[in-house]
Amino acid sequence: MEMDKKLIGALSNMAVLGTENERAIAKEILKRRFNIDELDSDSEVEAVVWLKYKTRYERTLIIQTYSALMNVSRIKTYRSGRASTIGLKLPADLAAKFRERVTTVLGAWHDEVESLFLGFILVNKLMPQNSKEEEDVCKEMDWRKATRHAESIRRLIFDHQLNE
Question: Are 65 and 99 in contact (CB under 8 A)?
Fold first, then answer.
């Protein structure tokens, strides 16, 4: 009996949080084995959402996004056997929203870092002037962002020189 409850809970989580194929399989098993056609959407199904990250900054952004979504300051994270993977427990109905928000935040962060990096290269003249590389970098840049970042870098360098 206890085993059936655990299996139903695991299948319910998969039916809500899994990929399209996993959801279909979980719903089919629930229907055939336990005669459950509809999942009780009012129940608080909690699951651990696993996310991969590449840098400590991405990990921090994932945790901060979770903290803002759940409005909590203390967070328990889970570790898998794989490096660079973090698990966070949240209600199943928020899992998709959380994944979407993390994807948006990480994408915006990568765009900002890339603009800052390209602006830094141009400000510090780290490539030959009028070269093919400079032309390629200039084509793919968001000039407004890069200019803003370049000005910030110039101000930081200028302020640093004044303070010395």
Answer: no
